[in-house]
Amino acid sequence: MLRIEVDMFSGRPNPVWMITEEEAARKLLGAAREMRAAVTKTGAGYNGLGFREVRVENILDDVRAPRGLPQKFAVGPTGKENLDAAGELARLLIETMPLRSEVRLVEHAVTPLDEKLRETALEWMQVTARLMRKPPGPPPPPPPPSNPLITTIPDSKCSQCQYEVSQYNPAFWNNPATQPYNNCYNYARNWRTNTFAQPGRAHGAGTSIMACNTVTAAAMADGLKKRCNCLPQSEYPRRLMALVIAPGYDYHWYRHQRGGFWGHKPGSTAARNYDSNGVLITDPQTCARGPYTNFCDFFYAGKSVVIN
Q1: Would you say which domain of life the source belongs to (predicted)?
Q2: What is the DSSP track for 253-303?
């Protein structure tokens, strides 16, 4: 039995399904063995916004993977020199996404599988493939010097309001006990829940409709306020967050950091302060965001904002 996961979302759980039919599993593993140059470790390729990789895992302890294949591996047009072969194998795996899952998984409550999602995964994979073929951009900027203090600053867009910016601290998020279980919403709120937090879920107001108005309503149910709706000092520390949307599919959040730039954490990948082109994020409205084309709004989050 194989577990297949398309690592492509930032806020929602990734599409995931099981291949329970032995012959189908054997056929896919055989294709992976024949294209061994396309197989890589999970997380070894592109780790920005949008499609990252397809993960394959054998979940039975009494079935060995074919010779030359690990029990868990990834494929995609990102992690190997032979991008064409890797992309072809990833396409074969994505096309096994069932229209109706015969094995009902927890993730399906938020990310149901359908034909449109399968086609979108293939489209997003092509976007990433084109990005990987571009000449590499400048290296990511180094983090600013470590400083444990939080600074209160006036909001440049609404000077009557203030909020707090804290030091950029990716090490807090990028350790094995934290990184896989916290997403962009956790990072932007600066609250590690280890639950892959969803807007509105803590207050029974979650949404499966990925649009600016619906995700905004869900987040405001958690206590977020739109920018320039000033928060009092009693809400210290107050964060400035930004919301963008991949229309119909996913959301993504950013947080303003000390030093004038923005940080974010795409899904279960590492926290960083640069965009899809490796450029320091000074404005989430104009940075490279892959398929997250809709900029929604800026928000404040005070200490009373509870997420889960």
Answers
A1: Bacteria
A2: EEEE-TTS-EEE--TTS--BSB-TTS-B-S-TTTS--TT--EEEEEEEE-T
In angstroms, the CA 188 to CA 254 distance is 5
Residue 132's contacts (CB-CB under 8 Å, 6 or more residues apart) are 45, 46, 77, 78, 83
- Find the length of the chain: 308
Entry pTM: 0.85
Chain centroid to CA 300: 21
- Tokens representing 285 are 């409205």
Which runs of consecutive H residues, i.e. helices, occur in the chain? Answer: 22-34, 83-94, 115-132, 170-173, 184-189, 212-221
Cβ(234)–Cβ(297) under 8 Å? no
Q: Position 104: which residue type? A: R
DSSP-based three-state secondary structure for 39: strand
153: helix, strand or coil:
strand
